[in-house]
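Hi support team,

I'm opening this ticket because the web form for multi-chain structure prediction keeps timing out on my end. I have pasted the exact lines I submitted so you can reproduce it. The total is 1137 residues across two entries, so I didn't expect it to be a heavy job. Is there a limit I'm missing, or should I split the entries? Thanks in advance, R.K.
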Amino acid sequence: MKDAARPSFAELAQQDAFIRRHIGPSAAEQAQMLKMLGQSSFAAFIDSVVPKSIRSREPLALGAAMGEAEALGKLRQIADKNKVFKSHIGMGYYDCHTPTVILRNLLENPAWYTAYTPYQPEISQGRLEVLLNFQTMVSDLTGMQIANASLLDEATSAAEAMTLCRRVSKAKGKIFFVSSDCHPQTIDVLRTRAEPVGIEIQVGDERTDIAKADYFGVLLQYPGTSGEVRDPSAIIKAAHDKGALVAVASDLLALTLLKPPGEMGADVVVGSTQRFGVPMGFGGPHAAFFATRDLYKRDMPGRLVGASLDAQGNMAYRLALQTREQHIRREKASSNICTAQALLAMIAAMYASYHGPAGLTTIAKRVHRLTATLAAGLKTLGVKVDTAAYFDTVIVERAGGANALHAAARKAHINLREIDADRVGISLDETTSSADLERLWALFAAGKAAPAFAAIEPKVVDTLPSGLSRTSPFLTHPVFNTYHSETDMLRYLRSLSDKDLALDRTMIPLGSCTMKLNATTEMIPVTWKEFGGLHPFAPHDQTTGYAQLTADLEKMLCACTGYDSISLQPNSGAQGEYAGLLAIRGYHQSRGEGHRNICLIPSSAHGTNPATAQMVGMQVVVVACDAKGNVDVEDLRAKAKKHAQALAAIMITYPSTHGVFEERVTEICAIVHEHGGQVYIDGANMNAQVGLAQPGHYGGDVSHLNLHKTFCIPHGGGGPGVGPIGVRAHLTPFMPGHFALPGFKEGGRKDGAVAAAPWGSASILPIVWVYIMMMGRDGLRQASEVAILNANYIAKRLAPHYPILYAAENGMVAHECILDLRPIKDETGISGEDVAKRLIDFGFHAPTMSFPVPGTLMIEPTESEPKAELDRFCDAMIRIREEITAVAKGTLDRNDNPLKNAPHTAMVLTAEWKHPYPREQAVFPVPSLKRAKYWPPVGRVDNVHGDRVLVCTCPPMSAYEDNA
Amino acid sequence: MDAHLVLAVIGRDRPGLVNAVSEVVTAGGGSWLETRMASLAGQFAGILQVSVPSAKADALIAALKTLEAKGLKLMIERAGDTPPPTGKMMALDLIGADRPGIVRDLSRVLAAQNVSIAELETERVAGQFSGEPMFKARARLLLPDGLSEDKLRQSIESLANEMMVDLELASGE
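Hello R.K., no limit was hit. The queue was backed up. Here is the completed structure from your submission:
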């Protein structure tokens, strides 16, 4: 008998409780919003937006939602299968101590990890300051003039160095000479990047092999992957004599003791900052660095933070040299890099502030002393150490006995580097103890008595080559010499995050960026040591937890996309695009159709698309779009036909970059297939599709997914990102390979590696796993539906006030909407920038500006924003429209008005008030702000000044003096 | 023998403007060769080149002048016999942060290097994502003998840190 008052056990158990925590509007609010849109039901609403031709007929092949505690419990079981051994593998990945004050207040703090890329400098001063600290740290330690705000990983950074050398080198050879003492994963990524653009990689010993090569550039590693520290000066001089450039991969900790490459004439210095407080994380994410000469700043890849002035003449930071990102001829771009590794770069910079120059030097000296002691102890055991001059790594001989040694080491929960049957590598780091050395010696003692640390260490002499000792000072700026007590560091971190807007304070309605909730339960596992403590090249029998996690995820993502296989290696969206096009290229080549090199790209595409096509050696042919931003199908047909013999691919975004579900997408895919091409569907807008449509079924051959958009990995203030690709079965053999992937030793592929680590940014994959488990098949579909509902609700509320561009014929938009500010600007002089800055006075982050159409604002609320927040945003936008109308009518001055003067700082408010509108209107344009107000720390930032007087390292303290 | 006329026209933008000019040109036996026209801030402005049999040139000029009564301002010049200048034709693409005086600075650099501007188009756009004002120029330049592409690029880039310059041999030259 069913008792109406007695809830079922399923109702009490609330297995699906997370769905309603992730999705903002309640069921009642959703009904209210549907009614406002004139819709009778959710199903009818979705039918009116998503074309029937692409709709999935089946529910997602995933399980039901799982509670938060249960999901974490299941993940804990998986994590426990990973074995965290003591890692002495080295190869660019070192165990380290994340200072716990930084761990809790930065890495685990949503004020930092939920922030967006600092395109709006006024609400990003905190993270911009830390990124500037990062640049200062890198340029000080490398001895270079300018450093960027991080790149994806050391291998990618080396590849960017290679292409920079080619652009600016006076030597016209085709060869990029790579020292055989570079990390093998770096060499593999270089090979991937070089071949499609006609660069030949020659790997050899720079002391003997370089003279004969006709090279334009050189990559050295200092200290080398073998640990050997060699003076690169002679090679640099010889290269410069013939007009070639030299890049040096280096290690920031070593450079506290070693003469920096910049003082030896290097043109580029690259490397990883992982060991500055960032867990190894089975390969990532970590921040790589890229430093070069001032002369090459325009050619430098990645983002660059600089100092400038605000409208009141006070110091303010912002992204400098934006013109590099907006480069004129996108199809001539040399790099498609957008994402950096902001969150990890900030950890590394804070690690430097925490320890300071003296503290870092002490850590380096200790690591070196331990290494010298290790070598001395090994010698007493009769073991031959091959490495003559080293910092933290040695290669030791074990003729015929390396395998047995590895087996013994693993029994003792120790990993050594595998080199060959006769030699092993040993790297030490900040976490190595004297007891660790005794354990290592015991392995070599083979049952005999191992030496005692206390007996060996006092006699040890440091072995850094004397001519290569560092003499120049570094990290002299106060920011690296002030926050050495925990109190100071804690308050510094808090004072910085208080300056910024992130998702913990407000909706971030950035179109195309999908700033959705990054739930705490999803973030918790990221810092578990079973995920963070693993070296990416640890033996597979120690990483079975990761194997299960990645296998689960591949299956889940296949279910979401309709593809047959997934590669999790690409560690940004743009890198996923690159891996996707490489797969297409490999497929054509395998069929004897390597001549196919035409890539069709609609004119509305994101700038990374043509840049990526260029990087794989394809030629871009632009396909026209109609007035609605949809692909002009007739133009496409004509161009596909014209280039049928050479057609390689089309790259389309779905829903389009204009936020429209194009009705004819299946036809577009069919036309390209008919003419021999493959279809790349950019997954940037996947958040409108999960559970509703699958690109692998409606015509895509390959897509990348932005796990940092659709699948809840936070943006971290500009990275990390993860951009896996999904492919149909015929492209599976051409996905990125890696020597550390299972199966490589059995003949698997290492070609096509796009990242240094086999699974890219592995340690943040648990976020996605937890999200999908907690949402389940129904929750994921609901998320897409509510994302579309929220966008349409905003469009409907704002339509009477702003023209909405690119709505479908029935007035509906997809998961984002575009407001056209151009007519308003023509009439009143108020621009999109003015509206964006005025939103700061209301406590909001601006929508996306001028993408995909100049002079517009693109709004994407995501499913996570509750109705109250949508209303608060719409109210602000409507109030702003009233101010614009007042400007039009002349009741507000055309130039001296709250929009042009936005944002208003507390300093402006308390200074003498000369504006023709009241102070209250300036800072409290709606009454609710009196209860909770965000005060921007700086006024509108002057970009031109900052680019003219380029300052990309920490300015002297005198620059901060109040100028108001 | 044909005469070549170069016309500059400007007037308040309204439908039928181009048609009004083309009717007169055709009726006067002229042949419309090349045009650059645009609507800017409510005014329609253009330059065009017309060829006409020498005998009919004066009559066509007179007929065109009647358009002034319809609110169009006109300047008409007969093309001279000066031989076209020689040198290397380059396409210039430039993007930089917008600021007052940028066109003056750019043209000054070009003049100092003896570069002639065959065509120049500029616009002000908002940068993607950042929204900051950007200055874009596309031009066709005639480089004097001895001026290298590199030197020209460097001298333009020396105007400002943020100036990104692409130069390419113009196709068909």
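A quick check on our side: The interface with chain B takes residues 117, 119, 297-298, 319-329, 332, 607, 831-833, 836, 846, 848-852, 854-855, 943-944, 947-948, 950 of chain A (CB under 8 Å). Let us know if the file doesn't open in your viewer.
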